[in-house]
């Protein structure tokens, strides 16, 4: 027997399946398996090529990036090891050799 998911709206455990939909009798919310997969994928961080990034990955910078408040630049091709995924506009925390700790946007890196 497969385990039915809890309701994403009210977290009720009394959901049931009706055809391709899951229905919550507590709040009346209806959703499909495709909705659940889209919601799970929405939270993923992706690089410039669409690859999913995870904590500990190594990435390469694809564009010269000016460091705010400094005259230094992170050059194209700089390899960044052991990234950490965080919430926010700059969704990668990392430490770059010669520059130090900083945050990057995932759209300016590619997974190596």
UniProtKB/TrEMBL annotation:
InterPro entries, per database record:
YjdM (IPR004624), YjdM_C (IPR013988), YjdM_N (IPR013987)
SUPFAM superfamilies from the UniProt entry: Prokaryotic SH3-related domain, Zinc beta-ribbon
The transmembrane residues are none
Stated family: Belongs to the YjdM family.
Which PANTHER family does this chain map to?
A: PROTEIN YJDM, PROTEIN YJDM-RELATED
Record domain Protein YjdM C-terminal: where? 46-111
Kindly list any coiled-coil regions of this protein.
Answer: none
Which residue range or ranges hold the Protein YjdM N-terminal domain?
A: 3-32
What is this protein's record name? Answer: Zinc ribbon domain-containing protein YjdM
């Amino acid at each position: 027997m497969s385990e039915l998911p809890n309701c994403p709206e009210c977290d009720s455990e009394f959901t049931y399946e009706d055809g391709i939909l899951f229905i919550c009798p507590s709040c009346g919310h209806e959703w499909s398996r495709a909705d659940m997969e889209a919601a799970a994928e929405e939270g993923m961080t992706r690089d410039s090529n669409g690859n999913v990034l995870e904590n500990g990955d190594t990435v390469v910078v694809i564009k010269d990036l000016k460091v705010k408040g400094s005259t230094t630049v992170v050059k194209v091709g700089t390899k960044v090891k052991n990234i950490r995924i965080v919430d926010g506009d700059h969704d990668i925390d990392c430490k770059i050799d010669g520059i130090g700790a900083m945050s990057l946007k995932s759209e300016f890196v590619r997974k190596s």
